[in-house]
Specification:
Elements (H helix, E strand, L loop, with lengths): L1 H17 L8 H15 L11 E17 L5 E15 L4 E8 L1
Antiparallel strand pairs: 1-2, 2-3
Length: 102
């Protein structure tokens, strides 16, 4: 058991003693590296940036009566609110979608 511990201690000492020290780059090197990582993480989007939502607005709201069926086959009615939204993106596009509130 002592031989194993002694062997491990020698191996760790050898690794620590013989590994070269890390050299720090200049501030410019670090900034260039960070810039490359950001560019790589953005993917292949048109213009290099992912479009983001600039504004959302409600463009319509109405109420609907819907029909539901119970497990026994009985019919029941319930009211929902249907809201239509439009999102405007930074690249000039827009998207319209609806949400149903029970």
């Amino acid at each position: 058991m002592k031989k194993i511990i002694l062997t491990l201690a020698i191996a760790v000492t050898a690794l620590v003693g013989f590994t070269p020290e890390a050299e720090a780059g200049t501030k410019g090197d670090v900034l260039r590296f960070i810039g490359k990582q950001i560019a790589k993480n953005q993917g292949h989007h048109h213009g290099g940036c992912t479009p983001y939502v600039v504004r959302s607005m409600e463009i319509g709201r109405h109420f609907e009566t819907r029909t539901g069926y119970r497990p026994c086959g009985a019919i029941y009615y319930y009211n929902v609110t249907v809201i239509t939204y439009r999102d405007f993106y930074s690249n000039g596009t827009s998207r319209t979608y609806t949400k149903v509130l029970a």
